[in-house]
């Protein structure tokens, strides 16, 4: 009976550790599934040279992580491999080298769960768990995880402990410790990479916001200057004929930049992005058409709004510049609405790019590693909210279309 409270306590701590590090689906069965996974990781006995427990635990943990957690397949595989390697390595150490009694090995499990839980709370932010890295980065992390995993696999499954001398047993213990510290280091690496990804998105939003307020301040300055010179302008208008008066007024409005749009909708982040982009389009002689029906703030993280709107417009502008189109064909059309929980965004532009179904279009640039990132960023942001993104061309018009449905709306 003394063992049971330790096992339950360790399992609860491990459950909260896992859910702090990886996002679980908002379904009751998903939470139960992850609880079962954490129970297996906590309580499964890992004797060296025994094939009974490790293979099924490995399979159940990977399957449970894949079915119950959010994110891309590579992300879920990465966290599944990290989890099974960390806990199975620790259990192998406790069960083979702290085996004076059952109480000792479960005290080891409980204290290990406490250390992991406290470390996770102190050094890792749960907000970072929603981030998505590139497929190549997840693939690299999986390759790095394979080394400690192979050590654990070899020690537990391919070794007969009782045929070894005491010095060899110590060597196996050292191998398990190396694998444990290596995989904990990889956990730290994953968190650092995901935090960096979040900071990049937040920086993009802050930059858009800064440009937006610069434009707003410039327009306020122009309005103040216009008010200051109003008397002179009125006197000039009195001396002009009606035909020249209208032309003078139009030139006055255009020259003082008071016709720019600042409030496109009810979402300040969208306003910030569109105001800054429209100013850039004017300088690049690109006509910007927009039709927006967003009557409330969007239920997205601000950096995700930037990722979707700013990257979609940047992608369209880059395509137009690459095509070297005449001024009358240099246009970008943006339509967006948010009604009854459904968010829709469509961005169109002239382009000769051919789109292959299921693939992002080639940027046509030499430095391919640093280009095409915008569309991937949009795709990752859309996936975070279980939405869909489509790309297609028709009659020389490229369209990026995405939609996200919020449940319960």
Q: Features of this protein?
A:
409 residues; alpha+beta; Heat Shock Protein 90; 2 domains; 12 helices; 63% helix
Question: How would you sum up this structure, described in words?
Answer:
The chain is of the alpha+beta class and 409 residues long. The protein has 2 domains: 3-199, no CATH class; 261-405, Heat Shock Protein 90. The protein has helices spanning 3-21, 28-43, 54-68, 73-97, 102-123, 135-157, 166-228, 230-238, 242-256, 268-283, 302-323, 373-384; strands at residues 287-294, 331-339, 342-350, 388-394, 397-405. The chain has a 5-stranded mixed β-sheet. Helix 1 (3-21) packs parallel to helix 5 (102-123) and helix 4 (73-97) runs parallel beside helix 6. Residues 365-372 have low confidence and may be disordered.
Lay out the secondary structure:
Elements: H1 3-21, H2 28-43, H3 54-68, H4 73-97, H5 102-123, H6 135-157, H7 166-228, H8 230-238, H9 242-256, H10 268-283, E1 287-294, H11 302-323, E2 331-339, E3 342-350, H12 373-384, E4 388-394, E5 397-405
Parallel strand pairs: 1-2
Antiparallel strand pairs: 2-3, 3-5, 4-5
Helix content: 55-70%
Please give the alpha-carbon distance between the first and last residues: 48 Å
Shape: elongated
The class by helix and strand makeup works out as alpha+beta
| Strand fraction | 5-15%
What's this model, at a glance?
The protein has a five-stranded mixed β-sheet with strand order 1-2-3-5-4. The chain is built from twelve helices and five strands. It has 409 residues and is α+β, with helices and mostly antiparallel strands.
